[in-house]
Amino acid sequence: MKDEEEKEEILNVYKKRLEDAMKAGNLAWWEMELPSGKIRFNQRKAEMLGYPPEKFEHYEDFTELLHPDDHDKAMQHMRDHLDGKEERYEVEYRIEKKDGSYKWFRDVGAITEEEDDYKKVTGVVIDIDERKKWERKVKASEERYRTLIETSMVGIVKTDLNDYMEFVNSAFAEMLGYDKEELKRMNISELTTSEEYEKIKEKTKSRDKGYEVYESELICKDGRSIEVLINASPYFVEDGEISGTIGIVQDISEKKKAEERKDLLHSILRHDIRNKTQVIKGYLELLEREEDLSEETQKYVSEALKATEQSTNLIKKIHLLLKAEEEKREPVNVTQKLRDAIDMNKELAKDYGIDIHTEYPSKRHIVEAGPLLKEVFSNVIENSIHHSNGEKIKISRIIKDDEVIYTVEDDGRGISDKEKEKVFKKGFTTQKERGTGLGLFLVKMLIRSYDGEIELKDSELGGAKFVIHLKKAK
User: Fold this and answer.
1) Which CATH architecture has domain 330-471?
2) Domain boundary assignment for the chain
3) What global pTM score does this model have?
């Protein structure tokens, strides 16, 4: 009798340990008898869904809660196991909780008893909801990162140790007039002169010491030569060995031809972009070395995305500055340009919790401006979103005899009188880690080229008010 009691006590200890382990791992066991469909399960399985255990007596009580997109898949996996096609039943699915939301589980089981028509299937269900949320965030981050790389206005190229191109983005291919697939079969030596290639090889010899920034010459498919600024860094594989080079390539031919823009382009391209793209490459190396991203690596991805956004914004501003110098005045539908600018900033405003409210009729108005008028409105709206710290942006319009006046105002913290004198100056920004100091400088330059004017005042809403004067088209 004493032996039986000791055995029972030992069994209870093991049961307790098993229960604690399953609880710690968000696990619950289950059993299903066939053909009756009767089930037994650890009550945690019901509790994870917010239901009392007595709700579930038959396996269909669970399956009817499966997400419509996952139901057939889960049932097919079970049939495949019961028919002997699969060694075990294993599937991931979403199941509806009592509050109407869905939770992700991983279900693993196998036949543990079988006699004539009777079968018992035993398994465990694992709560993987947090893992799925994390996977969705990582996937979204990686997709955004890939999109930013592919849509970047500067060329990006990766070469192996022998200078054969393994990856190029669209901007690099378009810069040289090739298809991306053509370039992936080529060597860097085929894109430049022998003299320039020797210079490039000399630079890559020291790639293990870090990045190199230098100017070179590339030859386009049609035979044209272009001057480029190359920002090159070593590319590491998982074991820490260097497998090649990543290069950021910027066409600076226009900079070479236009001396009046030399200082601006030199400063921006050689310093700002160099620093920001190094952050991108550093985190990119970390990202590509990892298969399962840890919480720390997720932070790296987030920081890389921020740096990419900064670089993309900076490059965009440079591109607009170059185009602005060639801007020609013409009749422009200002109503449409403003609508487009608002649409461009809707997602950004949503991220900041800001409502963009318009107070003017949708009547079409034609003003003397240029194709970049949309960028004028977009930069002003974006500036209010980033810097106002408010909840509302109001856009209104006044029509006068010879001009159309738009106001963009917010209910934020406003702008001091001291800063009002500086906001339109090139390079001025209150947030060095995010701003370029080119946005409002570009706005003022463009509006003046349209014979218009922009003013900065205090808004009755409590924040800042930008007043944009545009001439009506004759």
Assistant:
1) 2-Layer Sandwich (3.30)
2) 2-127, 133-324, 330-471
3) 0.39
Does CATH number 3.30.450.20 belong to domain 2-127? yes
- Chain segment 204-218, per-residue pLDDT in tens: 776 666 678 888 999
Q: Do domains 2-127 and 330-471 have the same CATH topology?
A: no
| Contact between residue 435 and residue 378 where contact means Cβ atoms under 8 Å apart | no
CATH class of 133-324: alpha beta
**Span 387-402, pLDDT tens digits:** 888 999 999 999 988 9
The pLDDT, as a whole number, for residue 364 is: 84
